[in-house]
Amino acid sequence: MEPAIYLDNNATTRVDPEVVAAMLPFFTEHFGNASSMHGFGTAAGAGLARARTQIQALLGAAHDHEVVFTSGGSESDTAAILSALAAYPERREIVTSAVEHPAVLSLCQYLAKQEGYRLHVIPVDERGRLDLEAYREALSERVAVVSIMWANNETGTLFPVEQLAEMAHALDIPFHTDAVQVVGKLPLKLADSAIDMLSLSGHKLHGPKGIGALYIKRGTRFRPLIRGGHQERGRRAGTENVPGIVGLGRAAELALAGLTDENTRVRALRDRLEQGLLARIDHCFVTGDVDNRLPNTANLAFEFIEGEAILLLLNREGVAASSGSACTSGSLEPSHVMRAMGIPYTAAHGATRFSLSRETTEAEIDRVVAVLPGIVERLRSLSPYWNAAEGTTKTFEPAYA
Length: 401
Ligand SMILES: *Cc1c(COP(=O)(O)O)cnc(C)c1O
Hints:
Blueprint: E1 5-6, H1 17-23, H2 39-59, E2 67-70, H3 73-87, E3 93-97, H4 102-115, E4 118-122, H5 132-138, E5 143-147, H6 161-169, E6 175-178, E7 197-201, E8 212-216, H7 242-257, H8 259-280, E9 284-286, E10 297-302, H9 307-316, E11 319-320, E12 322-323, H10 336-340, H11 345-348, E13 351-355, H12 362-381, H13 384-389
Helix pairs in contact: 1-7, 2-7, 8-12, 9-12
The structure holds pyridoxal-5'-phosphate.
């Protein structure tokens, strides 16, 4: 069997060997606590300081101390939202979108249900684009925080967060964005933006798991999620995960150097994959905003079959991808993202995400284009929905075919 083809980079990425190499000394000779007043502490502290400037550079941030290290994307999202609620206790409304990652969406739903906040969940259209009119209407002096993702993890669709942040600022509302899928894939210049807080995660950019950062623009009111020691200037207590932070810093440096490759070679490979599949497979279409999305993500809906079955057969061919639907015990519901876009069930069930990385090769893409048509044909021959629909017209107007 040929080596496995990994096209699930939006779920997690392989840690770059150079990241591992940068981390190793911080487990062994530089094991110190960065707060200690001796040479071991100094070495660890130097590792932290370096990583902070590496993240600052990737974000295009004005100051290195705008970067606070956390345990990952989920913690950064939670810290940002709860901080704003604590900083503006008189405001009782939250604005978010229908397609957020669960790290944001389930927290917001909890806050609405258990804490009585009024939640504005901004809808998207069939291509995953945010309803700007609904967004404008939801903004008011009663809103404590807006949290809207930069890029969707399932479809790669980008939201105009810089514009959304300016609209929020006009009403003095703090703006947070979950940018876990964007950081390392698109060039950023946060110094020039109105974004107050931004979440990122190490394992989505070839860094280690369990480490991330929250960008907090200078001047933003902030209330820590974890209180205790004075680490991170009092914004996140707890002895720093020094090896993880050093690894995240090195991963940021490598991602910055690879941005051009991501937006040229990786983007071209993604387009090659999509065009190859669309040309060979009927009744399939690309979901999301095809004109405005991440360079590495392709989400295709194959009508009348199940994404899980596709993944199983792909896996047998050594191809790792992901389905758009979350498999909840017993019932197979399409994901909240597919439902928010109004993708019909017959197509949403067959949504399959291919997420590439700088490690993806043309030979790998061509292998997927070669094996997937046969898999789809085989599954459709077994599908009662397909047999019923065969010969009929498409049930859904594709974003592009
Ligand atoms: C992966 C992901 C997260 C969660 O990050 P963790 O570091 O795994 O907690 C949050 N938001 C988005 C958009 C993601 O893709």
